[in-house]
Specification:
The structure holds two protein chains of two kinds. Helices cover 42% and strands 21% of the residues of chain A. Chain A is built from 21 helices and 28 strands. In chain A, helix 1 packs antiparallel against helix 2, helix 2 crosses helix 6 and helix 12 packs across helix 13. Chain B contains ten helices and ten strands. In chain B, strand 7, helix 7 and strand 8 form a beta-alpha-beta unit. Classes of the chains: A alpha/beta, B alpha/beta. The interface between A and B is medium-sized, with 15 and 20 residues.
Chain lengths: 601, 267
């Protein structure tokens, strides 16, 4: 197989040639979807790049982007890369202190921020950032008062670039030509469940190799596809979908109007491909469950009646077979009377493929979407290989994350740890040679995840190597599997299973405030806030029932014997969750020491 | 970071305004000067005459004596719609919206105040009619974006939370493209977060849109943070005026407020 020999900026220029006025992006502004063609895409990137160059961004220097998804995010990303500089994405939900950490650690010379909210974070910590020279602000609303030489508007930079292009036409093309496939394109800061975030350096070759050889055989994109960009762009998953893969395959990206309108905008666009993290799929699922509870008896009956039909048809499809005529016909009836409406409400009517990734997900949630006739795949991937390690290529096995992908050499160590090798393995952690040596040994990337292959070559992930619980009885248990089953309940938002070197398993549980609150209202239970709900004995009873339901499907040793409902909601600002909303086990074990001890008393 | 203020000068002048209801003096010889570009707060205990003052300015009540001058033009005695046309818009304390209509329609109908086309053109939706409708929608969308109302654009107002309704009420006043915005207790009944958001919006309206604001508010914290100038009324009489820091220390003001608290305790 031929090695990848191109770069993202080069792909962009080629697409402008090939597609010209075709739509590359849509953005909803003032209630109307505005289109951006490939030609306009390349022009905006060119002006911005030349403007940033005037401001002193040169080969090898670093620039960060901080803000919610927008076309300007992608323009900035590619403009930075076109100058052979390195682009760094920062989660817009990060508090100022974490923003400071990443800007400082990445040695960023410039930062592009979305709006005043993000700018304020930078301004509060700028005293600690001697290397930071310029802040480019995309949306100047509310900034008339700021008179600061460090702040410049995005528009102004583009204007400077435009003039520079008139003065030196062709320079941008030359610069893009100089970008090498092995240049570091961007640094992705991992969310860091264990320590401070680590910066994974990813080259053009790393990423494009993964897209072409790894992801495409699983996801089958065409230029007809249409996606909504809503997951954080600094994460490798959305970076791939909105930036890299759109450049390789030429499909259209849509940007929501604001965070509050994402759900509504997805419904308007009805994307052909929908990628989500488990948290979002769980939420969509429980929203449907809750809504069904509130609807009429007739509707409930209809939905229940067609559910098994959807499940049966899904089984055939997962095998990669066409359902026999009877089932196909029944499914068609079910689709017309039930599935279609549910899919439309979720904005998944035209969805040809739904992908879950980023964290493990409960099989029940996937079954729900498959039952609606949506081709649903679960991928297992890492930032360090720029995307996926495995995914279903031909048929789907429940609980499996599919076959190892073609972009990587795959090997299981003796203890089951997954080792990987290939062009997609990243270039190392920025300014952290020790962590790099730890993860890449003898040319193999040590994932830290333990898995198993079955006779058909399908991979089953057991857990993070260091998270596996060994009970005092000597039994190995994977906590995330049990946690995901618990999170299937609409009333449980987060669960942390404990029991390492203990006699039995226990769990810390965070209520789903909205759903439990609704439940309390219908049962006439008075409450004021999250804390009062968590302390309510009837709520305790409700959760007990839910936990028992989960226990029914688990082996004796895996059963949750005791649980405790957390009296506060876990929060990123309190360091309990990562920016991707993953639980930091160490912090939680420390912070809720007393509660945990109480469960083993 | 100095504040950028465009042109100084008097925008609205109220001179010796008196209003009586039967034997009750609602306002007695009140004079207030609102400068262009400022946020001017009117505070005072219940029944001090703040809302009466607003009603006089917007033409709902007709004052017995005194003058109200907006940029050299006398507006006292004009009908409310005329006053509105002069550039005085008001966001009411009790939300005055069409509850069954969507946020967008509410704002469009407020903006529709300025549309000038005949019935015939409207019937065919051509020419100036189309042009003006497009421009109106553009203006309204700007307000929607400004007040972060995108997610409720097409939702009937009646179903929205109180805090959001207040924001729409403010938007409705903004849609009238005012020279001066009268805001009556914008944060009453709001929680802390909603109050902070509202404060932000008022500041942005003042600074970004360059609209002068005359504000009636009970929340002293908000008044002290936002306003450049404060006038204090008590029993229809102006008892103090000046910068917020000065007002906070004024013995008469403190007494008016403590007095109110004392009387509240004994029903």
């Amino acid at each position: 197989m031929a090695r990848v020999n191109t770069t993202f900026p080069r792909l962009l220029m080629e697409n402008a040639q090939k597609y010209g006025q075709r739509v590359a992006m849509r953005e909803k502004r003032k209630g109307i979807w505005h289109e951006i063609s490939w030609q306009a895409y390349v022009e905006r990137v060119m002006f911005l790049a030349m403007g940033l160059r005037q401001l002193g961004l040169t080969q090898g220097s670093h620039a960060a982007i901080l803000g919610e998804n927008s076309p300007e995010w992608l323009f900035s990303d590619l403009a930075i890369q076109s100058l052979r500089a390195v682009s760094i994405g920062i989660y817009p939900t990060n508090p100022p202190d974490q923003v400071r950490y990443i800007l400082d650690h990445s040695r960023s010379k410039m930062v592009v921020v979305k709006d005043q909210e993000q700018l304020d974070k930078v301004l509060t910590v700028r005293g600690h950032l001697p290397l930071l020279e310029k802040t480019v602000v995309i949306d100047m609303k509310g900034l008339r008062r700021y008179r600061d030489p460090m702040i410049i508007s995005f528009r102004e930079v583009e204007g400077m670039g435009k003039e520079a292009v008139l003065k030196e036409p062709g320079l941008f093309e030359t610069l893009v030509g100089q970008v090498q496939p092995d240049d570091i394109a961007f640094i992705v800061y991992t969310s860091g469940t264990t320590g401070p975030p680590k910066g994974a350096m990813i080259s053009h070759r790393n990423n494009i190799h993964m897209i072409v050889q790894g992801l495409q055989p699983i996801l089958h994109f065409t230029e007809q596809d249409s996606l909504v960009s809503y997951l954080p762009l600094c994460h490798i998953l959305e970076r791939n979908l909105s930036m890299g893969m759109a450049l390789v395959f030429g499909y259209t990206i849509n940007f929501a109007e604001s965070i509050e309108t994402v759900q509504k905008n997805i419904q308007e666009i009805s994307p052909t491909f929908f990628a989500a993290v488990p948290r979002i799929l769980e939420k969509l699922h429980s929203a449907v469950v809750i809504r069904m509870e509130d609807s009429t008896r007739f509707k409930k009956a209809v939905t229940r009646f067609w559910e098994p039909v959807g499940g049966k048809a899904a089984q055939y499809r997962m095998q990669g077979e066409r359902p026999p005529f009877t089932w196909w016909f029944l499914y068609l009836l079910g689709y017309l009377s039930s599935f279609r409406a549910i899919r439309d409400k979720m904005g998944l009517l035209h969805c040809r493929c739904l992908m879950s990734g980023g964290a493990p997900i409960a099989p029940e949630v996937l079954d729900f979407f498959r039952g609606l006739g949506i081709h649903t795949v679960e991928l297992y991937g890492l930032t360090e290989v720029c995307g996926t390690v495995s995914g279903p290529h031909r048929f789907i096995k429940p609980g499996s994350v599919g076959e190892p992908c073609g972009a990587l050499e795959f090997r299981l160590a003796e203890d089951g740890e997954i080792f990987l090798k290939g062009d997609s393995v990243f270039a190392g952690y920025y300014r952290d040679p020790e962590a790099t040596r730890e993860i890449i040994q003898d040319g193999w990337l040590h994932t830290g995840d333990v898995g198993q292959l079955d006779e058909d070559g399908h991979l089953f992930i057991i857990d993070r190597k260091k998270d596996i619980i060994i009970t005092s009885g000597g039994k190995n248990i994977s906590p995330s599997e049990i946690e995901n089953r618990m999170k299937c309940s609409p009333f449980i938002k987060e669960a942390v299973v404990l029991g390492d070197r203990r006699k039995y398993l226990s769990a810390l549980i965070q209520l789903d405030f909205e759903n439990v609150g609704n439940w309390a209202q219908t049962h006439r239970i008075a409450y004021t806030n999250y804390r009062s709900l968590a302390q309510n004995p009837q709520v305790h009873g409700l959760i007990k029932e839910e936990v028992e339901k989960v226990n029914e499907d688990l082996a004796q040793v895996e059963a949750i014997k005791r649980f405790h409902i957390l009296e506060k909601e876990l929060d990123q600002d309190d360091e309990e969750l990562t920016a991707t909303q993953k639980v930091k086990r160490k912090v939680i074990a420390e912070r809720f020491k007393e509660e945990i001890a109480g469960m083993y008393r | 970071m100095a504040l950028v203020r465009d042109t100084e000068g008097d925008l609205l002048q109220v001179r010796d305004l008196s209003v009586h209801f039967g034997g009750i003096r609602a306002l007695e010889g009140v004079s207030i000067t609102v400068h262009r570009g400022e946020i001017h707060a009117v505070i005072g205990p219940n029944g001090a005459g703040k809302t009466t003052l607003f009603n006089c300015i917007s033409g709902i009540y007709r004052a017995k004596t005194g003058r109200i001058v907006l940029e050299g033009e006398d507006i006292l005695g004009l009908k409310p719609h005329k006053v509105a046309h002069m550039g005085v818009a008001r966001a009411f304390q009790n939300i005055e919206l069409f509850r069954g209509m969507t946020v967008l329609d509410n704002l469009m109908s407020a903006r529709g105040f300025f549309l000038r086309y005949g019935l015939l053109r409207a019937a065919f939706y051509l020419g100036r009619c189309l042009e003006e409708e497009v421009r109106a929608r553009d203006d309204v969308e700007e307000i929607i974006e400004f007040l972060d109302l995108q997610h409720v654009r097409k939702v009937p107002v009646g179903g929205l939370s109180y805090g959001v309704q207040k924001r729409v009420e403010l938007g409705r006043a903004l849609a009238m493209r005012p020279r001066i915005l009268l805001v009556d207790e914008p944060v009453s009944g709001m929680n802390l977060e909603e109050t902070e958001d509202m404060a932000r919006y008022l500041l942005d309206i003042n600074e970004e849109m360059n609209i002068t604001i005359l504000l009636v508010e009970h929340d002293m914290g908000l008044v002290m943070d936002l306003s450049h100038h404060v006038t204090v009324l008590n029993f229809g009489i102006k008892i103090a005026e000046g910068a917020p820091q000065v007002i906070a220390r004024d013995p008469q003001v403190i007494e008016a407020y403590l007095g109110e608290q004392a009387s509240a305790r004994t029903p």
